[in-house]
Amino acid sequence: MSVTVRVPAKVNVQLAVGPARSDGFHDLANVFLAVSLYDEVTVTPADELRVTCEGPDADLVPLDRTNLAARAAEALAARYGRSPDVHLHIAKDIPVAGGMAGGSADGAAALVACDALWETGASRDELLGICAELGSDVPFSLVGGAALGIGRGEQLTPLEVGGAFHWVFAMADRGLSTPAVFREFDRLGEGTDIPEPVASQELLAALAKGDPDALAATVSNDLQPAALSLHPELAGTLATGRAAGALAALVSGSGPTTAFLVRDPESAAAVAQALVSSGTCRTVRTASGPTPGATVAGL
Ligand SMILES: C[C@](O)(CO)[C@H](O)COP(=O)(O)OP(=O)(O)OC[C@H]1O[C@@H](n2ccc(N)nc2=O)[C@H](O)[C@@H]1O
Ligand SMILES: Nc1ncnc2c1ncn2[C@@H]1O[C@H](COP(=O)(O)OP(=O)(O)OP(=O)(O)O)[C@@H](O)[C@H]1O
Question: Does the C-beta of 55 come closer than 6 Å to ligand 2?
């Protein structure tokens, strides 16, 4: 018997970052939108805990116990006093170290899959608690849709969304480390007064209306200057997408994936074509959101 769970990537339509806290994290006002790029995690009983991975970026994924899917299985097993001996297979389509929460997605998916396999009877809140211990983005990968994350980004409030938003994503030729981007944010902000992060009411209204023009006017990412500082070539990718008609162009989370909000699938195709032709990125994908969080796809 095995269980397969499908889990989406995310884009941050607002990422407001406060000053560094004493624990090294930053308080956020983090507006997440789940988008239709998916990983699938399949869990099967085995003699020992083992992780395998397939997909274009598979060689970049650690297969030891640092893999967030393995850590999720271990955390759930420890909670229920059972052995974590399973085979976790990750079919990976979400870019690795791309700022789209790929590792977090696998953590949430493995948790849901093991929970179904082991029939633990854990409540949703218990699962969300384990997710928050695994990483700041992991709870959102479980719930999907759209949500405002405060604290480290792990304290979620679901958000209403009035329609589908269409996106183009450009993957860069190398990844960026999330802690390195937060450190660069701190360095760039040295000596300045960094305000407490607050969600934009205009942005929440744009999401609720399903209005792409209003959303384009309000998207923001406080980590973008830090990501551009570490990866200056991204400025060219952003400019290419804007020139091709994207309503908004921004770095996704800690980057280096760049995200382009477009009006409809036709304009997504045009922006994607321009990005491919420009040679300023590794691969280009189109997607839409919101889409549900980690969901059992097959038993
Ligand atoms: C950039 C985002 O992807 C936006 O959604 C997230 O804030 C990052 O979430 P994540 O990858 O799950 O991050 P975690 O695994 O919790 O933390 C990795 C590292 O990122 C930094 N970090 C993360 C979240 C946060 N609110 N403040 C931080 O400063 C810390 O250096 C931390 O050690
Ligand atoms: N299942 C996993 N898939 C990918 N990377 C993983 C996984 N588990 C652990 N990692 C490690 O996490 C690092 C960051 O990978 P990930 O793809 O989650 O980055 P990210 O999308 O930038 O994350 P985020 O958007 O949450 O900041 C990788 O370089 C890898 O070493």
Answer: no
Locate 193 and state its tokens.
């007064």
102 is in an annotated binding site: yes
Catalytic residues: 10, 137
Q: According to the annotation, is 99 in a ligand binding site? A: yes
SS3 196: coil
pTM score: 0.97
Which runs of consecutive H residues, i.e. helices, occur in 144-281? Answer: 178-189, 201-209, 212-218, 224-230, 234-243, 265-278
Is residue 289 lining ligand 2, measured as CB closer than 6 Å?
Answer: no
Question: What spacing in Å lies between the alpha carbon of 104 and ligand 2's midpoint?
Answer: 7
Structure tokens at 114: 């093991």
Angle at 93 between CA 43 and CA 71, to 5 degrees: 40
In order of start, what are the domains of the chain with their CATH numbers?
3-159+291-298 (3.30.230.10), 165-289 (3.30.70.890)
| Residue 179: Cβ-neighbour burial (10 angstroms; 0-12, 13-18, 19+) | exposed
Q: Within 10 Å of residue 94's Cβ, how many Cβ atoms?
A: 28
Name the packing angle between helices 124-134 and 68-79 (round to 10°). Answer: 130
- Nearest residue to 180 (alpha-carbon basis) of 238, 97, 106: 97
Q: Which residues pair with 29 in a beta bridge?
A: 16
Which residue owns the Cα nearest ligand 2 atom 19?
97
Reported as a single tens digit per residue, the pLDDT across 10-64 is 999 999 999 999 999 999 999 999 999 999 999 999 999 999 999 999 999 999 9
| Per-residue model confidence (pLDDT) at position 174 | 87
Check whether 145 has a pLDDT greater than 90: yes
Q: What is the ipTM of this complex?
A: 0.96
